[in-house]
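Please decode residue identities from the backbone states below.
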């Protein structure tokens, strides 16, 4: 969806990995400070996370470490993908790729990917990457 999330929204997403159907339960948290207190209880038991930021608004990166601390509180090794949104707004992008990629090593993230919710570019790929990572970790 291209609409900004207010509070928390819940979705189910079907993903096929290696001929195996997987159903993901997704909780979409808006980045508003006033809803942050809800996040900790919702992420208990999570198997993975997509940490989103707006490529056209560098300030959306400011609290990345705080969000990561919350989602990784019960599992410090939780697989997290760093996702830059609004890829379709090419002329307005203000976050440098190298800068965004620097967060991968700094915070032990699985990957960095840019998506467009408007065009759908890389959206399915993002779900496939996180699902594969979750399945690979469950095998061990």
């Amino acid at each position: 969806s291209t609409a900004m999330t207010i509070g928390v929204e819940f979705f189910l997403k079907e993903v096929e990995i290696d001929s195996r159907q997987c159903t993901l339960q997704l909780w979409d948290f808006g980045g508003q400070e006033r809803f942050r207190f809800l996040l900790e209880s919702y992420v208990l038991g999570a198997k993975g996370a997509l940490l989103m930021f707006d490529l056209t608004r560098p300030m959306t990166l400011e609290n990345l470490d705080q969000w990561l601390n919350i989602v990784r509180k019960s599992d410090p090794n939780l697989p997290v993908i760093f996702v830059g949104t609004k890829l379709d707004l090419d002329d307005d992008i203000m976050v440098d790729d190298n800068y965004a990629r620097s967060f991968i090593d700094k915070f032990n993230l699985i990957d960095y990917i840019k998506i467009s919710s408007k065009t759908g570019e890389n959206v399915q790929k993002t779900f496939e990457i996180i699902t594969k990572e979750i399945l690979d970790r469950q095998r061990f």
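Observation: The chain is about 30% helix and 25% strand.
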